[in-house]
Write a structure and sequence with these properties.
Mean pLDDT: 90
Strand content: under 5%
Structural class: mainly alpha
Order of helices and strands: HHHHHHHHHH
Radius of gyration: 16 Å
CATH architecture: Alpha Horseshoe
Distance between the termini: 57 Å
Shape: globular
Helix content: 55-70%
Largest sheet: none
CATH superfamily: Domain of unknown function DUF5071
Low-confidence stretches: 132-140
Number of strands: 0
Amino acid sequence: MDEDLRLPLPRDKYDTRSAAELVTLGWNKVELVIPEILEWPQDINWPVATMFVPFFVDAGVRLAPFIRPVFAESDAIWTFNILHEVVSQSPVLANELSGELERLAYSPTAAEHLEGVSHLARQILDGQRYQGVKRERTAG
């Protein structure tokens, strides 16, 4: 039996025990099921979703290949939640996803614009630019 089949995936939005177990296992043990785990922030109000957010933020750049397909979906609310809860909290991840952020900011779909994705993506990009200027000033 594959190891990922024995992982304690949450059964429902209230299964915080399984979510906590997954987080405790760490990235290397759960990497194969990241796409399934990444579905929970589709509704950030679910208790399970909030348990995964710090784990995703800590993953940083390793999460980028798993987030790109989310941005390709037509679910603007899911995209917004990932941007707001994860990408905005991880400058290294935001930097890694800068191409996707540019697309979301300046060429959003109608749904992405309506849900505030484009505005949030611009804010994240502006924050990156500000951090770059701040670093240059402190280095000089």
